[in-house]
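A common beginner's mistake is to predict each chain separately and then try to dock the pieces by hand. The better habit, illustrated here, is to supply every component at once so that their relative placement is modeled jointly.
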Amino acid sequence: MIAKQVNQKAWFMVLPVFLIVAFSAVIPLMTVVNYSVQDTFGNNVFFWVGFDWFRDLIHSERFHQAFLRQLLFSGIILAIEVPLGIAIALTMPKKGWGVPLCLVNMALPLLIPWNVVGTIWQIFGRVDIGLLGHTLAALGIDYNYTQDPIAAWLTVIVMDIWHWTSLVVLLCYAGLCSIPDAYYQAARIDGASRWAIFRYIQLPKMHRVLLIAILLRFMDSFMIYTEPFVVTGGGPGNSTTFLSIDLVKLAIGQFDLGNAAAMSLVYFLIILLCSWIFYTVMSNVGEESSPKGGA
Amino acid sequence: MASITLKDVAHSYRGESQNPADFALKKLNLTWRDGGAYALLGPSGCGKTTLLNIISGLLIPTRGQVLFKDQDVTRLPTEQRNIAQIFQFPVIYDTMTVFENLAFPLKNRGRTSKEIEPRVIELAKMLGLEKDLYGKAQHLTADAKQKISLGRGLIRKSVNAILFDEPLTVIDPQLKWQLRSQLKFLHKKFKFTMIYVTHDQTEALTFADEVIVMYGGAIVQIGTPEALFERPEHTFVGYFIGSPGMNILPCALKGNKAMIDGIEISLNQSYTPPSTGKIELGIRPEHLRLEEPGRDGLPVKVLKIDDIGRHKIARVALNTCQLNVIMPEMTTLTGDMGTLVIDTDHANIYLDEHLVTGETL
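With all components supplied together, the output reads:
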């Protein structure tokens, strides 16, 4: 019997990948981990503090509030963007000259850089020179996002909807276009109502693209930084200071690297956990029963 | 239950038009008997599905009327016609169980669950679906899914007609005959009108009392399977039905003599030669015989012989014309020459692709 020759040289082939990943991801991440368990008074002298920073963070009122604001923000924009995106996708034409027109219009907001979107809305909402702010003021509505937390929230949420609903629309539209005509014809023969068609044909067929849309929108909105920072700078007060804005304030504003490092790691784990929960729950929707053989 | 009548129906997907080429379905008149089993046979793109969709109301014809019994339903929406349609690919509602799928048409029409439940269970038994009745329909095989589609058609007792649009295309061959015989059984039991679209002639011929052959948006022949085989009214029917199809040979006519490529053949009927038009002689490979050279008949050159199991098919050349001849399995032929014997009882004459009848001698 011939023993199979074991050759370990192949490991060298993957070495470049290891090096690149280590250089670009693992080592920077480990730096953050280092900072999160040590303290320094400058001069590159560090000493071990264990999990003190994490303990501080878990008990920090400021972190709790930023976290709740973040959850509220993501919850609100998901609750608006997903149904709105589905609704718009349903009304988009399936053929004819309207298709390219709609698609291009839908894609436009997605092509605008974050800070430009922020600047557009920052000016748009200003009471003195902005079209929106000025119009609202002229109508007698008391709107000032620099002073009123509710106005600030509304501005940030409407801006996010303006910027990102298109993504949901385009994904849902792709899902809708993949449904064969026979399904709609069968539904007509079965006498299904418009609602039944949506509930039993369109929604199940959009299931996969919706999963992706919700995941993307959740992760993006949970990490949102540039747009609210440009518009409100986290204010008035701390009312629109979301997690990432808080993190930047902590790390670069206050230079509390230990706190900030601990917060980064917790932040990262929260996003990972939430995404995993979303994915698991959504993938299991409609597939509770175990697969069965044919008749 | 009612008969279905198509009155001067024509359809163009570009809307009303003066250009005959725009019409996917050319003007036709047709009545489907109540409880009959019909097959619509023809190549892809001949207008079969268009015709079917007009009957079910998924399409409103550009011209003409659709009548159920005496009622004009041309503009009646699909859901108000008592019609069911089964598509090429099984359509099931993924998130529903088999039970809910079958109950869906009744539920949409506002029936109570007291009415629905016994009906669904009865039908599921008939279709052999009772085992999976409460499982998700999504996980079933293609043939089970197609049974569900069929079940959704049969669940309404008031259904006039069930239209089948090539329903067995995605079914495994060994399950095809099983489903086919089940369909036949259900048709006998429920006596619904059955219109079955297919491009598979075996399927059409075994299913239907009457076969409607379509070609280029028009009906070229309606008849029993035997009639289509014996007396094809159009060269397309002759060519499309049978395997291999009818031999179609250009010829000239003189009384009861046909001249094929300079060779004279006596026919059983006498024809008045038309002044214009293309004349062809059609003869089935089954009605030709190949014998040893030197016998009574026409000398031909044998080009090749294919053994297809039940019989052999010989490709022979009569001067420049080529014909297929079916020979019994056990025949042997020496050399590459033979004698062709034509059973002139079964020879048909076509003028511009349409059958013409002569005077019997």
